[in-house]
Amino acid sequence: MRYHLRIEPPLWRCGLRQNFRIFQQQDIRTISATLLNENGVTEWTPLFYEDHPAREFCVQYGESDLAFLARLWAEEGIFFFERFAADSPEQKLTLCDDVAGLSQAGELPFNPDTSAGAETECVSMFRYEAYVRPSSVQSQDYTFKVPDWPGMYEQQGENLNGQLEQYEIFDYPGRFKDEQHGKDFTLYQMESLRSDAEKATGQSNSPKLWPGTRFTLTGHPQKMLNREWQVVQSILSGDQPQALHGSQGRGTTLGNQLEVIPADRTWRPRLQSKPKVDGPQSAIVTGPAGEEIFCDEHGRVRVQFHWDRYNPATEASSCWVRVSQAWAGPGFGNLAIPRIGQEVIVDFLNGDPDQPIIMGRTYHEDNRSPGSLPGTKTQMTIRSKTYKGSGFNELRFEDATDKEEIYLHAQKNMQVVVLNSKDKRVNYDRTVSIGHDESLVVANDRKVTVEGKQDHKTTKDHVSLTEGNQGLEVKGDLAQKISGALGISVQGDIVLQSDSKISLRVGGSFVVIHSGGVDIKGAKINLNGGGSPGDVILPMRPVILKAAAGSGTMFVAHCPKEDK
């Protein structure tokens, strides 16, 4: 009976779980620790010689934990291997970013004669290979926080060994948003593309050569090959024919097929394809409890994606997400901040799940539109909502036939500033209703023309102050009716002139002045005797008018021509 046994390292478990998950402000060590520990990979160690800064926003998007980690490790220039203890069965996953972290396996001689000294560890076959590979990498990316940042980094390959330098790889976007990541990622990509520019394949009977070890080859007729090498691939094969029933022949043998590269450089894994989001998604705007609007200085908001099972709907549910506006200029344009609880449409720059951007908003069953559809289908509405209140400001256009209307509602105050001219024309009626006071200030001249009749009613006092001259011309009759007294005080002359006559009448007495003379009639006429002059009745004396103008209660003493 034959058995087939497949043994996988603990890291294999990470390939059995697929997820959608967000990591914020975490470095590769922290992300790796979370996923490895959750998958039961407890025996592991990070062996890092380089800095690996935290990532602002990193998304595992429909990938297995293993695929996600492998992608991040490749971006960070990290390779991994299983390290075995020399004096115990202990095995530990090791994450490393420099060749200096590899174990030293000592020297191994080259011995092509496998029939002699089979028990002596050696390398029996060693074939050197050289390949033409890309000679340089130039990568570029963009960040809105520094719009004029070039965001471009270049790395020339080493150990070109005479090959042409024209084979450049230009990569955009480069998966970075800062200088440190830009430099590092470009270097790691260059080294990964040239990781097999020089390599060798070999055959050995040594079981101690596996990925994560270095050894020095000796005794090879090609002197250039007698140097230190690092193992990047190892396939061990063992044969024990005498264990099979009825089998005879040679004893146990061990073969090790190797792939190695020079140990003066660090092997880097190739960049893995990053998953792309197929299209826009919907999400819900989030923020602190009790808050209604939550944004930063760039107008960005936080959201919760429907697939996010780990982050609660709080101010930490996602990174700050930019919001597309209808118009965005330097200090001008359109601005409408999505509010907490609203549903937004989120797209992703270049399909990158790490770069969400809000492209629109939409209503849903619990968040209905203004009006009452479909009854108000002819209306176009812009309605805001009072912050932590029930009021609103609104601009509404009604386009129903023969009912066209523009409606404007201000919940409290309304200001209109016109720096030059303002023209209004109303082809039919105009009604103005003011619930409290009105003040009108004109810095220069004012003209009012009424082509029909004008009615003016003041239910209380009517006071008029003219600090210059006043003229009144009536081309028809002028009639005044005063229920009380009429008082006129003039510091200069009073001139009454008529082309017909002037009449003064009290009861049956009168004085008539006409071109033919003066008629006086009365029950009794007194000259230089009898009677007394009356007092002039002024409801509002000039001194009171001036005081009112100075205090601002009734009149404005000065009107500037421009706002300051």
Word description of this protein:
With 564 residues, this protein is mainly beta. Among the domains are: 10-97, Phage tail protein beta-alpha-beta fold; 104-262, no CATH class; 281-362, OB fold (Dihydrolipoamide Acetyltransferase, E2P). The chain is built from 4 helices and 27 strands. Helix 1 (28-38) packs antiparallel against helix 2 (65-75). The longest helix is centred in the N-terminal third of the chain and has 15 residues, at 179-193. The model has no long low-confidence stretch (mean pLDDT 90).
Question: What is the count of DSSP helices, taking H or I runs of 4+ residues?
Answer: 4
Radius of gyration: 47 Å
Query: Could you name the ranges where pLDDT drops below 50 across 5 or more consecutive residues?
Result: none
Give the termini separation. Answer: 100 Å
As laid out across the biggest beta sheet, the strand order is: 6-12-13-14-11-7
What is the number of beta strands? 27
Q: Which sheet architecture does the biggest sheet show?
A: 6 strands, mixed
Strand content: 25-35%
Classification by helices and strands: mainly beta
- What overall form do the CA principal axes indicate? rod-shaped
- Percent of residues in helices comes to under 10%
Mean pLDDT: 90
